[in-house]
Amino acid sequence: MEPIPSLRVLKYLFYDRFSTFYQQKKRMNPHLRNIVSQQLAQYHVNLSLEQSLMETTFTVFDLETTGFYPKLGDEIVSVGAIKMNVNEIKFPEHFYEIVSPIGEVPNNIYSLTGLSEEQVSNGKTFDEVFSKFLKFSEGTVLVAHPASFDVNFLQVMAKRWQLGLFQPTFIDSYYIANYLRPKKNNKLDGLVSYFNIENKQRHHALNDAQMTAEVFTQLLYLLQEKGIDTLGDYLKLRGKKKGDLLIK
């Protein structure tokens, strides 16, 4: 990732954040904010150290955004997610929503994602999409590639919209891939090629979530071959304590 231009930092600190907050405040729905706050307070998944990774229900998700820096005003333009359980259910449910951001969407993002200006302008507000995502993924472990980006982006956006603290239980499939395949190309494209997965149109949030889910399934099989079968085994791999799958 390229260094953040200092002029952009100054522009955001002294102008953009105030302008964005003003526009955002006009879109905020107090009733919906209360609903989301309640959802966040109840958002959890019951886990034990003996829980089999193959029998855990995951929500694999992907975000398309206006940039890499949510703390400098970048926003989400779409969210895609697939719910999966390797042993019981395979890709039974999907989630896809387009978000209409407060700020302008750069032209290269339209080209990259294939979204049109009309689609984005007709999208829902972040708080509405986030509420739907919480409902969809409730009771599951989140997975993203890399989770350090996608989960953090949602956390920053939830804070910006004054919705509450978002502290999901999640696993980073990129970390697992790097553990299993050190010094290899473990970005999504590289893994899609390695596992001979159908390469769908990239940078479409639902397509990327689908491919990540298929990649993650293969990674779970490889973990199983190494004797990493349960959430407890995964926690040992990560050096985490019981109940702590949060990857900072």
Automatic annotation (TrEMBL):
Matching Pfam families: RNase_T
SMART domains xrefs: EXOIII (SM00479)
GO molecular function, one term: DNA-directed DNA polymerase activity
GO biological process terms held by the UniProt record: DNA replication proofreading
Gene3D superfamilies in alphabetical order: Ribonuclease H-like superfamily/Ribonuclease H
The keyword Nuclease belongs to this UniProt entry's keyword annotation: yes
Every Exonuclease domain range: 57-225
GO cellular component: cytosol
Organism superkingdom: Bacteria
The keyword DNA damage belongs to this UniProt entry's keyword annotation: no
InterPro entries: DnaQ, Ribonucl_H, RNaseH-like_sf, RNaseH_sf
Keyword terms: Exonuclease, Hydrolase, Nuclease
The protein, known as: Exonuclease domain-containing protein
Species annotation: Anaerobacillus arseniciselenatis
